[in-house]
C-alpha cells in the first residue's frame, strides 16, 4: 500500500506529466503553424512520450492499491518568438521535471517505500535522456543560425524521430 503522502505526490506527478503532454502539443501546433513539419512531428512524438509517462504512473498507483484522481491541467503557452525559443523552453521544462522526479524519489526514500524507489529509477534515467534530447536540438539550432539552410536540415532530421506506439497506432486507425 502506498502512504497517503506518496499517493498524493504521485497524483501530482501524473498531472505534471499530462501538463508536459499539453505543453508539447501546444509547441507542436506552433511549429506546424510556421511550416516546420519535421519539428512539429518531433514535438508531437514528445507529446505521446509524456502520455506514456502518465500512463506508467497511473498503472503503478493502481497496482499499489492507490487511487488516481485527475485534476485540472493548466493552459500551456501558445506563442513563441522562434523555433529556437520553443526548444529552449522544452529543455527548461525538462530540467523542471527532473527536479520533480528527484523530489518524488526523496519522498519515497523518507517514506521507506522501496518499491516506489525502484519504480522511480526508470524516470530518473528517462530524465537524463529527456534533457539530453531537448538540449541536443537547442544546440543544433544555435549552430544552424549561422548557416543558410541550417534550419531546413534540422527540420528534415527531426522528421525522422520514431513515434511511440500510441501515435503509430492512432495514425493507422
Ligand atoms: Fe515526462 Fe519529459 O518527462
What does this structure look like?
The protein is mainly alpha-helical and 173 residues long. The chain has a single domain, classed as Ferritin (Up-down Bundle), CATH 1.20.1260.10. The chain is 77% helix and 0% strand. The chain has 6 helices and no strands. Helix 2 packs parallel to helix 5 (150-158). The chain is elongated. It starts with a helix and ends with a helix. The model has no long low-confidence stretch (mean pLDDT 95). Bound molecules: MU-OXO-diiron. The site of MU-OXO-diiron (FEO) has 7 residues, from helix 1, helix 2 and helix 3.
Contiguous low-pLDDT stretches (5 residues minimum) are none
State the helix count: 6
Output the CATH class name: Mainly Alpha
- SSE pattern, N- to C-terminal: HHHHHH
Unique bound compounds: MU-OXO-diiron
Distance between the termini: 38 Å
CATH-defined fold name: Ferritin
How much beta, percentage-wise?
A: under 5%
Overall mean pLDDT: 95
Query: What is the CATH superfamily label?
Result: Ferritin, core subunit, four-helix bundle
CATH architecture: Up-down Bundle
Q: What is the count of β-strands? A: 0
Helix content: over 70%
- The secondary structure category is mainly alpha
Overall 3D form: elongated
Largest sheet: none
**Tally of discrete structural domains:** 1
Radius of gyration equals 17 Å
Features:
173 residues; 6 helices; binds MU-OXO-diiron; Ferritin; 0% strand; 77% helix; single chain; mainly alpha
Amino acid at each position: 500500500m502506498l502512504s497517503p503522502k506518496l499517493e498524493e505526490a504521485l497524483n501530482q506527478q501524473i498531472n505534471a506529466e499530462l501538463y508536459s503532454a499539453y505543453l508539447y502539443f501546444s509547441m507542436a501546433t506552433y511549429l506546424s503553424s510556421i511550416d516546420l513539419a519535421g519539428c512539429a512531428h518531433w514535438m508531437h512524438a514528445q507529446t505521446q512520450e509524456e502520455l506514456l509517462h502518465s500512463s506508467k504512473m497511473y498503472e503503478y498507483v493502481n497496482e499499489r492499491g492507490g487511487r488516481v484522481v485527475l485534476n485540472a491541467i493548466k493552459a500551456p503557452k501558445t506563442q513563441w518568438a522562434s523555433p529556437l525559443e520553443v526548444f529552449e523552453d522544452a529543455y527548461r521544462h525538462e530540467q523542471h521535471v527532473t527536479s520533480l522526479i528527484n523530489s518524488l524519489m526523496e519522498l519515497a526514500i523518507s517514506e521507506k517505500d522501496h518499491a516506489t524507489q525502484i519504480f522511480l529509477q526508470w524516470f530518473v534515467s528517462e530524465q537524463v535522456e529527456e534533457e539530453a534530447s531537448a538540449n541536443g536540438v537547442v544546440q543544433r539550432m544555435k549552430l544552424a543560425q549561422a548557416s543558410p539552410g541550417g534550419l531546413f536540415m534540422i527540420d528534415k532530421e527531426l522528421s525522422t524521430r520514431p513515434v511511440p506506439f500510441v501515435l503509430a497506432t492512432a495514425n493507422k486507425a
